[in-house]
Amino acid sequence: MRVTNDIELVDGLPIAYVHSLDSLAVADLHLGYEGVMAKRGILVPKANLKSIEKSIKSAVESTSAKNIIVDGDIKNDFSDVDVEEFNELFELIHFLKDLGLSITLIKGNHDNFVERYKDTFNLKVYRQETLIGKYLFLHGEELPAEDKLIQSSTLIMGHEHPAISIYTEAGAKEKLKCFLYGKYKGKPILVLPAMSYFSGGTDINIVPKNELLSPLFKDIDIDSMEAYPVGYGSTMDFGTVEIIKKGTF
């Protein structure tokens, strides 16, 4: 599904493909989640990394992309470095290299050690944001630098883990990860859903605007944003957030 002539949402996956950059764009992997949770006494099945690898491989097969841009929160823990995070990033880098992908990592608020792999694997690593072509890729917990914003034509960010919740006729609630597409200070912005298997996401059609994580949303009309949920093996167009709130999609 195309949201612009240049940006395609890879069907059924929380991954965007930017044609002019020949690049996949993903966000919020939260590698090592299971290991961090185990240290807190919460045991969850090891599913995250395999799910991420399966999705990226499928996206490469459908697009033949040569690059991947990880838009922040590559690992899970904030201040520490868990051995699971270290090992899983090492494995993921090898996996991406084997797929023939050139890797760009944008550090989010969780990513306190990823530079260790920069020289060894010839990675491009940036803190919070970087311009690639006409696109400003940013994680999203900080406002973009004004000079980069001016130079860009489109923003692509993560951090918020957007999702929508809908209710069945029986009253059961179902949550679907989603892309959001709208305007930030007059410029198009695409918000990526979380890649993490365990991230259900923020109910963008339920949670009040002032409770959202990213400061960018203070300058975004969320109700006018287009929502593209990902589920049931496909990517859908549910119209605007306002329409979803009214239940008329």
UniProtKB/TrEMBL annotation:
InterPro entries for the chain: Calcineurin-like_PHP (IPR004843), Metallo-depent_PP-like (IPR029052), Pesterase_MJ0037 (IPR004376), Pesterase_MJ0037-like (IPR024173)
Pfam family, one: Metallophos
Domain of life of the organism encoding this protein: Archaea
Domain Calcineurin-like phosphoesterase: 24-166
A GO molecular-function annotation: hydrolase activity
Protein name as it appears in the record: Metallophosphoesterase superfamily enzyme
